[in-house]
Amino acid sequence: MGKGFYISRSAGRVGLLLGAAAAVTIVALAIVYAQEKSRNAAADDGGGVNGTTAPAFTPTPMASNDSWDQYRLPDTLRPEYYNLTLWPRLHMGQDGMYIFTGSSSAVFTCVKETDLILIHSKMLNLTTIDGHLARLTAVGLATAPAVEATWLQMETQYLVIQLSGVMTVGGSYQLDTEFQGELADDLEGFYRSEYVEDGVKRVVATTQMQPTDARKAFPCFDEPAMKAVFHVTLIHEPGTVALSNGMEKDTVNTTIEGTDVTVTSFEPTKRMSTYVLAFIVCDFAYVSAPKGSDNILIRIWARRKAIEQGQGEYAHNVTGPILKFYESYFNVTYPLSKSDQIALPDFNAGAMENWGLVTYRETALLYDPQFSSNGNKERVLTVISHELAHMWFGNLVTLRWWNDLWLNEGFASYVEYLGANHAEPTWNIKDTIVLNDVHRVFAVDALNSSHPLSSREDEINMPTDISQLFDSISYSKGASVLRMLSEFLSEPVFVKGLSTYLNQFAYSNTVYTDLWDHLQQAVDSTPSLSLPHSVNDIMNRWILQMGFPVVTIDTSTGELSQNHFLLDSESVVEKASEFNYEWYIPITWKKAGVGQEPFWLLQKTDTHSPLTATRNEWVLANLNITGYYRVNYDSDNWERLLNQLNSDHQLIPVINRAQIVDDTFNLARAKILNITLALRTTVYLSHERELMPWESAIDNLSHFFLLFDRSEVYGPMQTYFKKLITPLFSYFQRITLNWTRVPSSHTDQYNQVNAIWLACKTGLDSCQDLTKGWFKQWMQDPANNPIHPNLRTTVYCSAIAAGGAEEWDFGWEMFKNASIASEADKLRYALACSKQPWLLNRYLKYTLDPTKIRKQDVTSTIVHIARNVVGQTLAWDFVRARWESFLTQYGGSSFSFAHLISGVTKRFSSRFELQQLQQFMKDNENIGFGSGAFALEQSIASTTAKLKWLAENKETVLSWFISQSK
Ligand code: BES
Ligand code: ZN
């Protein structure tokens, strides 16, 4: 029993596959989809609490013990290599469908006796060969048992092959399949992307396999530890380009079933996981330079127009240096002969680290000095740096299972700053990890609904379990704790351990403790370094328990203590931790401006720490926020720090100025500190010109906007912020010679944007006149945009907010005509700033039409609208009303559901909104929340916390703002 459905089409013919007549394909695909659909439909109508059939995206746990009902592959077979041929059709069939056909031979070794083959296959229509969905032959000496039955197990996404007898341990076998699939525009597996060039629609066939969609392109053992060598051949229309992980080896023009085709075969890949495979057929051009001394061919691919306009140059310029940097940082050479990177018009994530063929969203790879901002440029740099880091950490050495995803993504998210810094050493990029990752994830990890970095292997099974792991905890907390580790080990020790780890496990798989072991060996061989505990014991406390500590320092006695920091002080932590929510904490500190000897806080309290201060000295801990914790002091020390900020803020390191603002605001949100103390840390900002503290303040003030922009606090708050930002605005007006020059430093360029953003938002007339004037000038002469790219997002937003339909429609026209995706993105963002409900509602509707808003941009557009106080309710209603159809349309595993839920509910802070959230959860418990389930819990938790906080603090905040405006 337990068998899913079984396509039994007789008269399968070997070799039919590649030339499969469209009609056959369509009928067959229709069968597959009908089956999948009927499951969904059953689930939808099945309704009720006890609906018997689970939908595809939230399957009920399997009762059966049959191995085909388990989501994990058995350990009986080990793939060795695949010979894979794919033929995507870039023209629509008569039925209006795009398809691909393919054939694959998977050669594997039997490592445990079995009479069953389970191989992943999803939404593929398999052609019958000799009466079955696959054919088994022996390789070498063994003889293959006969195939008895084959069927597709839809829920677990397997093709099951039941044999009449067992395979021999040590024997090699070959499994042949032939198949067709739809080349849909669903951004998953082998999919279709479209764009228009010179008035002609063009189609690209491309892939996104991670985490579990290689099985949607061909039957394969689709788990990261099932590494194999892939021999790929692509069949494509003459004149188009075919790319894959390996270098093009051979190109032959021929005819298959009456069609002229080019057959391109590629060098075999290294031994690697299925999720880093990539196949692309397109009509793109590329930039490259003569190979360097290391003989690696670097190519940047994109639409022909984009390449002609030089949009690939920047990516091309930084790739070589970044690859070189990693070769020396990891002490392992880049093992492939080429590095292709390609910008795709439709792409769900930001970028994907396919080995040798990295795929990107256009905005993450293309740069045009005429249109792109410095922020766009930095984005290109850091995304490239992130993905290239994965070439070693992730691709060469791969974690055994997805439960360790945090180490893969956290690692790349940490070292991306190092690679980027190497390419642009004047940008101060390394510091910004504090804002982008540490502070950002503190906000999530301080909730009771957070979760530990590391999950147990047996907790992560279904594709949705896996997708949910791609969250800010894995990325940003992962990056933050690895940075802390590298800091307390010192970089040379960290890279030494890293390098032996990568060398030992090259082309194979690991668990995170393998890395700890290698780092420990590096520690052990460094006599000058002494740690209070092993790397394993120190790190376990950071990765096996959720959250992080707040260290409280009493500088009058030197007493130090740690507590689990929770934003909702009343929440009861039900998840037990074997470490009692205590951490081993590296304490770095300064006293009266002088750096002191670091030490460890190893218990809940330390009554004899050296952290004491007398009357005029201040103590500052967690220098440059290299530790993943917040700090609180006795009130005298806070006062001394405040005095220092107000008298000469430069004596406090710039990152710690940002920290003081962020820590005090968050300690106040957690009711550990009085909110007025936090607000007082902002007063000195009228003298602050540096980016980091302003960014930190703006993050926290934005939180205030969300909390108060619908309440009576709004007016006095605006007045105060306006007063605060005016000096910064005037400063930039001055140094840019009345906005005619670009500030020279990268960070000043960002801070100029902050100045304009906040000044316009708080209604500073001179700011609004400036932005409206620029926009008007542009509307009068659309071919000559007078606004500097760095300022466009902010200026467009402010002008569209101040304007009406005319401004909006102009923005929309410009959006449609933009020749670079980053310019289109700026407009797409700004269009969400309108204050007219009807324009926002119309815009929301546009997100349902992929010819207006690409699917990849749907969630972020809705979230932008929700950020706007006028759009908030419209967006929330829009999402709730269509939740079910969103889920069915975009699948359960897509990256963005979490973003959608957290985005549209970010402003929630009232009891009524909390009820709506709870109702939403109840209404949809049957169909589920896809990869947004965590996010919904987090949103309920944070709304609850805000509600309580507001009840106690709103009046205080209001009167403080009023007192400041006098
Ligand atoms: N491996 C991911 C891409 C990915 C994300 C695939 C989610 C499947 C699901 C890639 O390395 C990545 O992390 N990309 C980031 C950009 C990066 C700079 C943080 C992304 O896509 O946002
Ligand atoms: Zn990544």
Automatic annotation (TrEMBL):
GO cellular component terms? cytoplasm; extracellular space; plasma membrane
Q: What is this protein called?
A: Aminopeptidase
Source species of the chain: Synaphobranchus kaupii
Q: Which PANTHER family match?
A: AMINOPEPTIDASE N (PTHR11533:SF172), PROTEASE M1 ZINC METALLOPROTEASE (PTHR11533)
Sites annotated Transition state stabilizer? 475
Print the keywords alphabetically: Aminopeptidase, Cell membrane, Disulfide bond, Glycoprotein, Hydrolase, Membrane, Metal-binding, Metalloprotease, Protease, Signal-anchor, Transmembrane, Transmembrane helix, Zinc
Annotated residues that bind Zn(2+) are located at 386, 390, 409
Q: What is its main location?
A: membrane
Does this UniProt record's set of keywords contain Hydrolase?
yes
Q: Where is the ERAP1-like C-terminal domain?
A: 618-940
Record's family? Belongs to the peptidase M1 family.
Annotated cofactor note: Binds 1 zinc ion per subunit.
Tell me which SUPFAM superfamilies the record gives: Leukotriene A4 hydrolase N-terminal domain, Metalloproteases ('zincins'), catalytic domain
